Structures are given as structure tokens and as C-alpha cells.
User: Fold this.
Amino acid sequence: MLYAVLCYNDENVTSAWSKEEDDRVMRDLTAVQSKYVDAGKLGPVARLLPTTAATTLRHTTGETIVMDGPFAETKEQLLGFYLIECESLDEALTFARDLSSANPSAGSYEIRPLALYKPGELPS
Amino acid sequence: MTDTAWIDLALTSARPQAMGALLRYFRNLDFAEEAFQEACIRALKTWPKNGPPRDPAAWLIFVGRNSGIDKVRRQARETALPPEEQLSDLGDREEELAERLDGSHYRDDILRLLFVCSNPVLPATQQIALALRIVSGLTVRQIARAFLVSEAAMEQRITRAKARVAAAGIPFETPDAADRAERLAAVATMIYLVFNEGYSAMNGPDGVSADLCDEAIRLSRLLLRLFPAEPEIMGLTALLLLQHSRGRARFDADGSLVLLEDQDRRLWNRQMIAEALAMIDKAMRHRRPGPYQIQAAIAAVHARAERPELTDWEEIDLLYQALERLQPSPVITLNRAVAVSKREGAEAALTMVEPLAERLSGYFYFHGLHGALLKQLGRNREARVAFDRAIALATNAAEAAYIRKQLDHLADDAATACLRKSFPI
Assistant:
């Protein structure tokens, strides 16, 4: 069984980290990850840029609204994520619109640029 | 991370919210500060034992408020003054407090706090000093070091600022929409000033001034979380990130300034650049260009060029023209002249720069650029005069060192010319 591990933290705290503190956290995390990488258990590792860099496309009845920020209503849960290479936010929004028109339910797609991406080595 | 390091971070990040709320209760900067200090001391005692609270800011506000109230009551016994007037919310019960601590109140409190510090009754240097003290919680000694003044002088500056704020009778009500927009611009300016203070004081790997830049970036991210759909705040954040991304490349081993085109681009911080580019991309969609967005866009053109010769100078020229239309200033024209010199040569740029001589006579970069253009045209004697003016106006050692190098080049050229004259080859 595969698990998605989503990291939550208080951005007030993480954005107060100095470069040195951030580097130290990343170094410690990489040390933990490397054990699992060696065991062939770790898949993609992605760090998202701060929520201020996020854009949300919200799909309501019959229309889509583009908003700044990731502020989906809290009753919604994160159900999964795509990784996609895009030239611009517009292109990413087009992709999200395509998804939302294919998706029968109302909901939102949060578009967050990645800060770090390691493809990992999971067997498919 | 150790327990105390975590507590340190939690206190730093909760500070704007907690100080903002305590200021609302006590309506007095000194009082709010003392209450916050008291709450921090209590946090350092209790958190390691009981674990961190779920909402550190709310905890600090609650504890700080109680300790402040105690103090007001004690003072009342000693001085027999009617102290209740100093408190705005004495009647609050705990559950009401909890209600007040919801997101919307935080938002107004932080904004109010930032606004108090960027009040136009204060000169810019006092605004920055006050913000660093009150919002960021830097010690007077740290701020004094960043400003290169004595601790006593900085103490006095902050005390004066507080007195002015108190005398101005700033209203503490929730700002309406129009006030908010106005305050937002003032606060953005203040954050930009904090950044510039760090940026221009930075000469070499000096921790203090880099801290000021980091702090300004933290504040602008905070502001953007409060106003996630404000393109100018996105622009401001992007601009600060892009400028700061070059921090390590801006000085050589001798601490001399390295011009953008001579910088080792491998030293630029790619993570900051990526965040900034994403931010500009978002901002542009709003179709409400402003000075911060345009400046960020200019910085982004540089950031996108892998090598200096790949810089899109035409785009930069166009962006500066847009900036000139939006906010005409001789400094912007001066900056545009750099793009013009790249596109059309030094002669064309010189024609743009010379009419600015009177208005920019006290500006380091004017004489630096003027000298560089004259030098390019082989007018070395005039270049020397310009560089001499620049050196006299340099605000830090790195700027002076850079100009001295230019003068040395001129001297080398002159020496070579002399040799050629006496020994024609």
C-alpha cells in the first residue's frame, strides 16, 4: 500500500526560519529520507512554495473563479495532487480548467509552484 | 531543533499578532511591549514543561493581557490614578477573548501595529526603527548596529518615535476599506525602507544587515497573507526576494561592490528567484501594474538571463518607461539610461543623464554612472572628476571601494597612454 505524506506546518514559523535554519531542517530531513531511498521505498519528494505563491481555481455551478491564495474552504480535504510542467500560470490554469470541466463535483484546484522536486525511485 | 529554538521561533512569529492585540488592549506601545515581554518569560518557563500551546499567539495575548492588567492595578494602588481608562477591554470574559482572537481580529491587529509604526508623523528613519523594535522585536543594540549609530542615539530615536505616536492620538478602531488601502501603501513603503536599510548597509557578509533584509521579506510575506489578492504586495515581495537573491554575489573578497553584470550568477539564490517569478506571474494577472510590480519585473528580467549578455535590455527599457510614466523621477530616468547605454551606446545614455546633473548632484549612483559613461567614451579626465564626486558621496565602504577600482583603471589607462607617448611603438 502506498501512502501520501503531506507536510503541514505553521507558515508563520517556517517563514521565520533563517537560511541557516532552513538548510539545517532540509539537511536533517534528507538524512531521514535517504534511509528510505536506499530501501527503494521513497517516491517523489516535493516542497511547495509558500501559500502566498498559490492560486486557486474554484469550480462552482456553471462557472470557474480564479482566486489568489490556497484558501479553499476548510471543509474540503486535499485528495491528491498532480505534478505538471507548465510555461506559465495561465497554462497551469488551463490544465486546472480542463480538470474541473471533467470533474462532475464542485471543488477547487490549488495551483502551487514547486520549490523542490525529487522524482525518487519507486517501482511503478 | 531544540526546545528553546522552537520556542524562539514561535515567539518571533507570534510577535506581530500578539503585540498588535496587546496594543489594542492597552493603547500604549510601552505597556504592550512590557506585557509581551512578560508573556514571553512565562512561555519560556511553561512551554518546555507543558509542551507548546496550540495557538502560541493566542496564549501570549491572554497571558500578556493578564499581566498587563495586574500591573495597571498595582500602579493604581501606588499612584491612585484612575487607570481603567488606559484599558479598552477590561470587561472581557475569557470566552469573549477567545472569540476576539479569530482570524479577522489578528488581521486588523497586525495591520494596526504596522500602521502605527509607519505613521506619517514620524520621519522615515524613526518609522523603520520603531517597526524593528515593536513588530520585529530586535533589541535596541541590534537596531543601532544595523543603522551604524550608538545604542544611546538609537534608544533616543525610538523613545522619540513612541512619544510622537502617543501625541498623535492614533485611533485604534478597525480600519474601514478606504483606510486599509491607504495604510497598506504606507506599510508597504515602511517594509521597503526596512529592506533598503539592510541592503545599503550591507557590506560584505555582515550578519546584521542581512537580517534586516530577511526581516523585511518576512514582513512582506506576512502582509501578503493578510492581503492575498493585492498585486502590489506581490510585487513588493517579489522585488525584495529578487534583490536579496543576489546578496552573496554583490561583493567580492575585498568587500568591494560587484556590479550586476559582473556578478557570479551561480551565487544567486535560485529558490528566492523561483518564488519571486511565481509571485510576479500571479500579480500580472490582475492587470493593475504598480511601481513595485514593475521594479520586480525589471529585476526578474535580470534574474532570467543566464549570462549578462543574454539580458533583454529592450524589455528593461520598456519597463523603465512604464515606471517613468507611473512615477516620474530623475532616479528612474538614470536607471533607464543604463538600459539605453546597452541598446544605443554610451553617447545616447550620456545625453539622457546630463540633464539630471542638477537634481541628482548629491546622488552617488549618478556620478558613478556618469563617470562610467564618460570612461566608455574615452573622456577620462571628465570621468575622473565624476568618480571623485561619487567617492565623496559613497555611503559605505563597498561603494567607495568600487569607485576606487574605477579610478585605478583610469590611472592604468593613463599610464599606458603615457608610455605610448614616450615610447611610440
Summary: Chain A has one domain: 2-113.
